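Lab channel / #folding
Pinned by the channel admin:
"Please post every new chain as: sequence first, then the structure tokens as a reply. Keep commentary short and put observations after the output so the thread stays searchable."

First post following the new format, from NK:
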Amino acid sequence: MMNRRQREDVLVRRTVTVETIPSGQPFELQEGQLAQITQALGSSFTLVVEGQLVRLRGDDADAIGKEPPESIVVPENVSTADIEPLIWETLKSCYDPEIPVNIVDLGLIYRCEVTPIDAHGDVQVVIDMTLTAPGCGMGEAIANEVCDKVLALPKVEDITVNLVFDPPWTRSMMSEEAQLTLGL
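Reply from TO:
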């Protein structure tokens, strides 16, 4: 497993579409290109390719000779009471591709509201989240990752992720652990 501060050179084994950082624009890596892994956290890889930072989805890990990252193990019999803690655990597996800290510890999650919607214990989830910078092009990609991961949880039938910018994010919103990780 790669240390947070280590970099690893890899060869792109098949053509694959990635997202440029910070714009979020699609970009195609060609088979045979050299890349360097700078971050392998959550369910994606951050790579440097010809001086450009890009984000590779974990589902495409084989394109750089890696295994897809492990997903969160969900208990078989999840009760409605277990859902909210499970959502928070899941959110901690989402990372800003430029920062080696999960979005919860970064202080990007402002609200996580879980509302029962039927007698079977199914729920609707509303999440308000922000970004470290309002113009960050990765906002949609991070929000989509949150949606995908939370919707994959049992009993979650619907999710809304709102990108909000009030109050504006500041470093003071980070957990102590995040500040230590980033040397602040």
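NK: The domain at 8-64 is CATH 2.30.30.40 (SH3 type barrels.).
TO: also worth noting, The CA atoms of residues 83 and 155 lie 8 Å apart.
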